[in-house]
Design a protein that fits this description.
Elements (H helix, E strand, L loop, with lengths): L2 H19 L3 H14 L4 H13 L3 H14 L4 H13 L3 H14 L4 H13 L3 H14 L4 H13 L3 H14 L4 H16 L1
Helix pairs in contact: 1-2, 2-3, 3-4, 3-5, 4-5, 5-6, 5-7, 6-7, 7-8, 8-9, 9-10, 10-11
Amino acid sequence: MNANSAQLAIEQLQQGIAKQRAGQISAALSHYQRAAKLDPSNAQVWHLLGVCALQSGNLALAAKHFRTCLKLNPESAETYNNLGVALRRMGRHGEAVDAFRSALAIRRDYASAAYNLGLSFEAMNVPGEAENAYRHALQSNANDFNSVNALGNLLFRTQRTAEAVPLLKLARRLQPDNGHANGVLAQALLQLDLS
C-alpha cells in the first residue's frame, strides 16, 4: 500500500464517520468498505464496519468484522464489548462472556462491558455472576440507568425485595418516564407492604 492509498482510506473513513453520525448507515457502510479495500490493515475501519453490521442486524457479519479488528488491534476494549453484544444477540452467551471479560481485562472500569456481561450471565441463568457484573458496572458508574435497573430487577426476581427497592427507586429517579421501571418498583413496594 502506498501513501496515496493510505490517505484516500483516511478520507473515506472520515466521510463514513460523518455519514454514520448523520444516521446514514448505508452511505457510511459504502465509505467504510472503500476504506477497507484501500487499507485493509486499518483496525478502525473494521471496527466501524462491525458497528454498521451490528446496527443493521447482521450479527454474523458484525462478529466477523470485530474479529478482524481484534487481529489488528487486540487491545480494543470497545471492539471486545461490541463483539460480545453481537454474540449475545446470536444466543452465543458463553462466547459473549469471554468477549466481555476480555474488554474488562483491558479496561477494568468499562461499565458498559460489565453491564453486558451481567446480561449474558442472566441469559445463562447464573444470577450470582450477573449480580457481580452489575455491581461492577455500578462501581464504575453509579448512575448508569441500565445497570441500576438490571440489578434492581434481578434482586426483585430473586426474592430480595428489600435490597431491590432502593435501586428501583434510583432507576425511577434516573428515568422517571420509564414505564417498565415504574411498574417493577410498584410491584416491589406492594410486595413489601404485604409482607
